[in-house]
Fold these 3 entries.
Entry 1:
Amino acid sequence: MSTTNKKQTAASKVREFSAEELCKKLSDNRKELLDLSLRSRAGQVQNPIRIRTLRRENARILMVLGEKAAK
């Protein structure tokens, strides 16, 4: 599977959720990201890749929310 297909698949999975579910997921992700960022500065993060994953997921959610608002 190419990189483009993976990105399209991830975005299409996010598009399946309703706007309310996306807002809830975005809120949860932001809380987790804040916690991970604070622990990262203290050197206590076991999985630093999770920070990047959350940021990308948040970007996808915001993109889909923008698409839904434009409709």
Entry 2:
Amino acid sequence: MIITNCPGCPMFLDRWQYVINEMEGKRYGRDGEGIPVFTYEEVAGLVLGYDPWDLGLQMHQTDCEPVLEKIGIEYDPERKYEINGIVTKVNTHSMLNV
């Protein structure tokens, strides 16, 4: 996991891992799944007990679930794309199957 203090950096670092994979075929992280990038505010929210999906972690290009599991943060995968109490079905992909 990478933690940044700049709100633009996670977007840049997160998004460009995907773009580099698309353009060059190069993958980062363990098993080529990408390296999750968070702001310190997101990490503070997790430590304080906020739901990862309420923090907006589902908006990251690189899946954050492996990090959540590794540090013991509980989350409901069914709520990942919930909007106003309604769970929507979203076709997702990982860097592995792009």
Entry 3:
Amino acid sequence: MTDIALIWDAALGRADMALAAGDFAMDDGLETAVVISLFTDAPADAGDAIPDGGGDPRGWWGDMPIDAAQQGPTPPDVTGSKLWLLDRAVLTSETLARAESYAEAALAWMVRDGVAQSVGAVAISPALGVLELTVEILQGSTERQFVYAWSLSGVTPGGVMASTVVLDARPSNATFLDAAGALVEVGPNVLRPLFASGAQVGNLVEAAATNWVRNPRAEGAVVGTPGTAPTDWQFGLGAGLSQEIIGTGTESGVPYVDVRIFGTATATGIALNAYLDTNNVALADGQQWTLSAYVQVVAGATPNGQAELHIGEYGTGSAFPGFVIAAPTTWTRYSTTATVADPPYTGADGMVWVFCTAADVVDFTLRIGAPQLELGAAATSVILPPAGSPGVTTRAADTIWTPT
């Protein structure tokens, strides 16, 4: 079913209805349900500290029982979350854990009511005073992701926070997304703004991170049929299918390669396995690794209307945790995270998969850009090696201070 879409406005820290083609924008109802669940204020419990120091526990009036004598003082279901309790919190690891717990509790009804098989949330602080929450919802074999960011400090977007934060050092290049969502590269010691919904909500301040994909710029590809994959990449094809390297370029600042897969499949299985680096990164038990990449179908259509992002784990056995991209028709950065577990896996790589069925007539062109495999629970800003010098690349930590 469809519903009037609620669009999250990170600059204002609220959701609202939007217009499209002179009418209300619509969605399939899932994200609207997520927004209502997360950003409606659930009532605080007796022991919770109210951010403004007052005594109002909030809560949605529609959850109040009509007849307290018959229904009891507490409704069986509570709409919303307690994320509002974090409004003036200091962004520590404890605060991030609370955000994840509040979000998962608010969305748990989806599992109880059969809307989803599982729900999860990952909270990070991508910038000073900014909380970013990634919600993952599994429906059948499809995983949906929604990302929301907002300021906990009450600073006006583009105001005090942006003008008083000073970058002390970052001895490496780095990237950020500008107000239009385009990737921008900057040199060492350049303070990076953080934009959401076209407005600056803070500054991008990150810990050090390493991209273990050596050639995220997709350099070295040779146009032709079959052509040559980018240096350190490899394309594996399904039986009966052929490859054509269409070309390389940049879209919204993101470097990419276009590969066309065509023919009639003679077996059911993977039509394309794009290995994003032919080297494996070393793993240790319990680590979390995140693979991200921009992916888009730019011509034709994949046989099942989707593509997949997978982390391959190898050692004693193998595992391929991943994320299904339900409709990869827009230039979007997708990510998937896996936790290394028994049996012991000692190496990993990143891959983009497309599946087919025997006798499928296949003809699609897939655009892949800026792949990144990094240690951690979430994708950080795109890390690129210097142009013409592929290699494992580390983005140094941002060191900042705020003048008093």
